[in-house]
User: Which sequence fits this backbone?
């Protein structure tokens, strides 16, 4: 990985132990290459609203506003920015009125985002930026100060990331990386051939009653005042949509609500009267259903503007998932994981796998690591459009970018073929389980007891497979000569040193 990525926890919105992203997210290292992808038109990035330019421009300029901010001038930009995190709003406003350089530094949106979120106001109006919203400044009262002559990567880089076109990263996907696209699968096909690799189904969601009906306008009309969770805040839907339509955040606040069905009084399930949607039948039974209302969180409504999305993570409790955009489309970048595989480029996993660290934003990741990621064996990429549904196998790393404003539903589940993974996770990584209610103190024990009662043979088979997985692996040589490499390829979705795999044959690669 590039040495300059700032490691912070990756954002897994489904993991309630990391419900909020780090709120103060100033870069402290500006050595990241500021190159733009070749296909990109540099003119697409507008001038910085305060006239700030990247640090390198100071070399050819005979003015430097930073030199004129008294004792603060000796602080490197990174340190100055970190110092400002300790100030409250009145102190930021006062300090910002002393000179142009400090004005620009104290305007930094991440500072105001953190202050606003901490302040948790009951009522407010979104005013286009975190600072204006915190200070309740109407557009007519927002100052426009020209700070040209200030050269700072710390201030410029997030702005660059906000305006760098991201679509070019999602074009021209190499054929070998393409996530297979199929109309639909039978339960048999899914369980025998497709549980270990991502795929997109183009038919089932088009049958849902809410497909074609749910649009942002429709939902705002119906649920304007209903609060939905967006990372660390609960905002009425109309406020979130105001934000979504008018913000300049590098990583826009992402609506990810696990109680949407209750809040919107939706009926869910194929044979349920007036159901809004259901899980496609190919996925078969969901073994976590045996946990009843003690199952961990399992469904979410997701909404966000173009450029919002999820940074690299794996889904909780080794569950598998499906994700279905109802409007907009999503770019997916995915990697299999196993004890013997490195994590995706630019992602660091702690020794016990409990922490995943990755660059701060999707834009930052794509700018710094996309080329390498795309060339890494095992990489899978695809675009899931409105009305389609993507399958995320248990344990796969994924990064997701909304290419347009999008509303989606996602559900996590345990298909039978993935039972050993889930049993193993609950048993061996008990400290990393998430989404269970507080009264569930032993998720493994509870799951084994309930599954044993409902489907004893399924549990016995799952435990047997789990034990088999733990047996010492064949040596490398044996693997190569006796075909072990192929077993592994199947395990990891067709990726391995090998000669191509027949079970992708019926995939329609678009
Ligand atoms: O739609 C997204 O941002 C992706 C959400 C996700 O990670 C998932 O469904 O597992
Ligand atoms: Fe996920």
Assistant:
């Amino acid at each position: 990985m590039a040495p300059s990525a700032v490691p912070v926890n990756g954002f897994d919105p489904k993991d309630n132990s990391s419900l909020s992203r780090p709120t103060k997210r100033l870069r402290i290292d500006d050595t990241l290459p500021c190159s733009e992808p070749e296909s990109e038109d540099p003119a697409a990035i507008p001038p910085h609203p305060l006239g700030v330019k990247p640090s390198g421009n100071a070399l050819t300029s005979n003015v430097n506003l930073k030199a004129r901010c008294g004792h603060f001038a000796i602080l490197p930009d990174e340190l100055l920015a970190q110092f400002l995190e300790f100030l409250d709003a009145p102190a930021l406003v006062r300090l910002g009125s002393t000179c142009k350089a400090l004005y620009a530094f104290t305007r930094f949106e991440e500072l105001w985002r953190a202050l606003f979120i901490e302040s948790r106001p009951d009522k407010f109006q979104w005013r286009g930026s975190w600072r204006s919203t915190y200070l309740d400044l109407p557009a007519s009262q927002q100052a426009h100060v020209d700070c040209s002559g200030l050269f700072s990567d710390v201030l410029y880089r997030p702005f660059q990331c906000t305006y760098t076109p991201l679509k070019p990263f999602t074009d021209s996907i190499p054929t070998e990386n393409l996530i297979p696209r199929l109309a639909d699968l039978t339960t048999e096909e899914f369980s025998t051939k497709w549980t270990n690799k991502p795929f997109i189904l183009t038919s089932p969601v088009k049958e849902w009653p809410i497909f074609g009906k749910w649009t942002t306008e429709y939902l705002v009309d119906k649920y304007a005042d209903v609060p939905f969770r967006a990372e660390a805040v609960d905002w009425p839907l109309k406020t979130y949509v105001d934000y979504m339509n008018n913000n300049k955040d590098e990583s826009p606040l992402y609506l990810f609500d696990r109680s949407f069905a209750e809040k919107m009084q939706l009926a869910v399930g194929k044979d349920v009267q007036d159901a809004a949607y259901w899980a496609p039948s190919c996925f078969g039974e969901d073994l976590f259903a045996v946990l009843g209302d003690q199952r961990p969180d399992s469904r979410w409504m997701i909404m966000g503007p173009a450029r919002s999305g999820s940074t690299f993570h794996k889904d909780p409790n080794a569950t598998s998932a499906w994700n279905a955009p109802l409007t907009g489309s999503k770019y997916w970048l995915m990697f299999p994981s196993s004890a013997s595989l490195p994590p995706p480029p630019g992602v660091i996993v702690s020794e016990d796998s409990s922490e995943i660290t990755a660059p701060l934003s999707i834009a930052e990741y794509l700018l710094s690591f996309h080329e390498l990621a795309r060339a890494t064996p095992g990489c899978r990429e695809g675009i899931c459009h409105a009305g389609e549904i993507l399958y995320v196998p248990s344990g796969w790393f994924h990064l997701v970018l909304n290419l347009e404003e999008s509303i989606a539903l996602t559900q996590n589940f345990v298909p039978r073929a993935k039972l050993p993974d889930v049993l193993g996770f609950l048993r061996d990584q008990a400290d990393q389980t998430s989404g269970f209610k507080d009264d569930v103190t032993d998720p493994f024990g509870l799951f084994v007891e309930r599954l044993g009662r409902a489907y004893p043979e399924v549990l016995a088979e799952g435990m047997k497979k789990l034990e088999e997985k733990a047996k010492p692996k064949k040596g490398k040589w044996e693997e190569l000569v006796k075909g072990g490499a192929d077993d592994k390829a199947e395990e990891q979705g067709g990726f391995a040193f090998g000669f191509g795999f027949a079970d992708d044959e019926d995939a329609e690669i678009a």
In short: Residues 302, 309-310, 315, 321, 323, 330, 392, 398, 400, 408, 410 surround 2-oxoglutaric acid (ligand 1) (CB under 6 Å). Residues 339 and 353 are 10 Å apart (CA to CA).
